[in-house]
Specification:
CATH architecture: 3-Layer(aba) Sandwich
Strand order of the largest sheet: 3-2-1-4-5-6-7
Structural class: alpha/beta
Number of helices: 6
Largest sheet: 7 strands, parallel
Radius of gyration: 16 Å
CATH superfamily: NAD(P)-binding Rossmann-like Domain
CATH topology: Rossmann fold
Distance between the termini: 45 Å
């Protein structure tokens, strides 16, 4: 049997890149997608080159680019076993902060982009009896003051459950990964002392996908000990 194939959006840094490294160690072949082509190519080279890791430049808000990403994955590896809809970014809190254009880009990336990833891959996951994962957040479990980002992650919480219900009986597992504070480029000034590292969330992802086929870990909420809320 060929090694299974793991597709990750938002793979160029942070949780996505850490998950790619962990999945490579677990003998997955990788499809790495993000807008930053140079970072992707470097990561793909690090993880084994074209035979093991395919870099695909993709803006997840563009349906044609998502379709092209999946086509390239199938051409290279012939299957999709795990899909991690991880692309996303945040914004400053406050409904008078950020520009409307920035808001629009964030909502499209965090919500619409994740939905398009599901749409582009769902039939292939059905065929493989595979695994769909989405990056939610602690902020998708409790509203944060003035945070439109939090609203997008509440949408992902609902999207994960909606996908799970649609896929019920198909053999496809669905997991919502909900990190607390993680020291990634998400925080321009750093996440602070005691924050999780991207590798901590990568381990949670690999835990979920490595359960026996009859076990579906639907939600993993992971906070650093130092985070009270």
């Amino acid at each position: 049997m060929a090694d299974p194939v793991f597709l990750i959006t938002g793979a160029s840094s942070g949780i996505g890149a850490a998950t790619a490294r962990a999945a490579a160690q677990a003998r997955y072949r990788l499809v790495l997608a993000a807008r930053s082509a140079a970072k992707l190519e470097a990561l793909a080279d690090e993880l084994g080159g074209p035979e093991r890791a395919l870099a695909v430049a993709c803006d997840v808000t563009e349906w044609e680019q998502q379709q092209a990403m999946v086509s390239r994955a199938l051409e290279a590896f012939g299957q999709l076993d795990v899909v991690f809809a991880n692309a996303g970014f945040g914004a400053r809190r406050g409904f008078l902060e950020e520009s409307p254009e920035f808001w629009k880009s964030m909502v499209l990336t965090n919500v619409y982009g994740a939905a398009l990833t599901i749409r582009a891959t769902i039939e292939h996951l059905r065929a493989a009896r595979g695994h769909l994962l989405l990056t939610g957040s602690v902020a998708g479990r409790r509203a944060l003051p003035g945070s439109l980002y939090s609203c997008t992650k509440w949408a992902i919480t609902a999207m994960g459950e909606a996908a799970r219900q649609e896929l019920d009986g198909s053999g496809v597992r669905v997991t919502l990964i909900e990190p607390g504070m993680v020291d990634t480029p998400f925080f321009s000034a750093g996440a602070g002392e005691g924050a999780l590292q991207p590798e901590d969330i990568a381990e949670a992802v690999l835990f979920a996908v490595s359960r026996p086929p009859h076990v579906d870990v639907n939600e993993l909420l992971v906070r650093p000990v130092a985070q009270s809320g």
